[in-house]
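Archive maintenance. Older records in this collection stored only the sequence; we are now back-filling the structure field for every entry so that each record is complete. The fields below show one back-filled record exactly as it appears after the update. Entries are processed alphabetically, and AraC family transcriptional regulator is next in the queue.

ARCHIVE ENTRY
Title: AraC family transcriptional regulator
Organism field: Pseudolysobacter antarcticus
Length field: 154
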Amino acid sequence: MLDTPVIVQTTTQLTAIIPIKVARSEMQKVMGPGINEVIAAVKAQGIGPTGPWFTHHLRITAEEFDFEICVPVSAPVTPVGRVKQGQWPAMKVARAIYSGPYEGLGAAWAELGAWITANGFSPATDLWERYISGPESNADAATYRTELNRELLD
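Back-filled structure field:
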């Protein structure tokens, strides 16, 4: 289920990121280790996480995901392993909260995209998902909450 979308102006946020380009079939194998790696790095440096982790999807095709696993931090990260310093820019976004299992995210994104178009906005090509609650909080996938964000170009 997708909540009613809203338009939000975000603020600049320092992040720690791991860039990943992977075949769709490998996504589930790389996500968990990547999250653990970036969170361990920011905890070891005492700079975060300062909020929920998120993924920035640069390009999604039928064969491949090109994305970044991101964690908000309180100070610049010292690069370690695959973890790099990042900065999430301020932007105007269409935002909606999706409640339910991750398998429903595709349909939720389609619904948000239709809302964006119906309301006269032009979305950027990339998108980001902030994982508010998931398997780490409850085994019941119906309780998962994912914040969907799409930058608006006008």
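Update note: The helical segments are 27-44, 105-118. Strands lie at 6-9, 13-23, 54-60, 64-72, 84-88, 92-99, 127-133, 145-151.
Entry marked complete.
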